[in-house]
Amino acid sequence: MHSIEHLFSSTREFLQQAMPLTVEVLKALAAPIVAYAALRVSRQQVRINESKLRLDMYDRRLKVYGAVKGMLNAFYTNGTLTQGDLDTYREQVVEVDFLFREEVQAYVRELDRNARQVIVENHRLDVSAGRSKNADVTTRNRLDTLHRWLIEQPSNAKRIFQPSLSPEGVTKRGWLSRIYAVVAATCWHVGSALQRIWTIR
């Protein structure tokens, strides 16, 4: 009986002494497991965030292209452009400098400039009506040139915008920025998980 009690006592003492070491070993083993799990989660989060970014970029670019098409449709429908058409167009393309390469930016500005010139020439034509035939002819010639330019734009606009609206054209992160994002997210997850593990007593 005494030997059994002694055995139980020795076993209990051994477990009490071994428990802190066991906890430390488990904590050490937890670190690489947590790191691997955090890496997997971080990579998934980066891919999800990139998909959201591409979708958001596509929607914002499509809005600018829609503004261009709206301006051209207004011209085809009414045979001219108004200040209201130009104001609506400007409101919808305000982000163009942050979304597109220089070629698209230049095209959007060119359409703005020519649309504004159509409005100006129409005003001149109204003012000069019945005053000077020569001035009227000059104004009409300028309007004809602008109208011909606008008529050619649907195909030009599609050609210029298409690379930026294709799946390959939507901006993707470079490899370095993607690696940095994964590493940063992984470190955050690992740090948070290990902090919780190491606070276990």
- Summarize the amount of helix as a percent range: over 70%
Instruction: Count every beta strand, where a strand is a DSSP E run of 2 or more residues.
Output: 0
In round numbers, the mean pLDDT is 76
Q: Outline the low-pLDDT stretches.
A: none
Q: Give the overall shape, derived from the CA principal axes.
A: rod-shaped
Largest sheet: none
Q: In DSSP terms, counting alpha (H) and pi (I) runs of 4 or more, how many helices?
A: 7
Structural class: mainly alpha
Helix and strand string, N-terminal first? HHHHHHH
Beta-strand percentage range = under 5%
Rg is 34 Å
End-to-end separation: 35 Å
Structure description:
The chain is mostly helical and 201 residues long. The protein has a domain at 55-171. The chain is 87% helix and 0% strand. The protein is built from seven helices and no strands. α1 packs antiparallel against α2 (83-92). The chain is rod-shaped.
Characteristic terms for this protein:
mainly alpha; single chain; 201 residues
Care to give the gist of this entry?
With 201 residues, this protein is mainly α. The protein has helices at 2-78, 83-92, 96-99, 102-128, 133-151, 153-165, 175-198.
